[in-house]
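Quick one:
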Amino acid sequence: MFVKPVGGRAVRRPDTMRLLSADGETVPDTAFWLRAKARGDVEDATPAQKATVLPATDADAVAQPIPESNEGHAE
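Output:
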């Protein structure tokens, strides 16, 4: 399940003893986290979407104008 601390609270992960990220984290569905939700220390949240950066390809290159040629034109 994905949870985040409720407004200004600091909640430690029992497995690592580090603070739960303010943006939220995926945690196991255990009695510890269910009790934390019941106490109002954490709330269900939705993970933020990360922007996906794709590698550049030749098609992504900026097209440069092709200089016009005067060949074959009568003046």
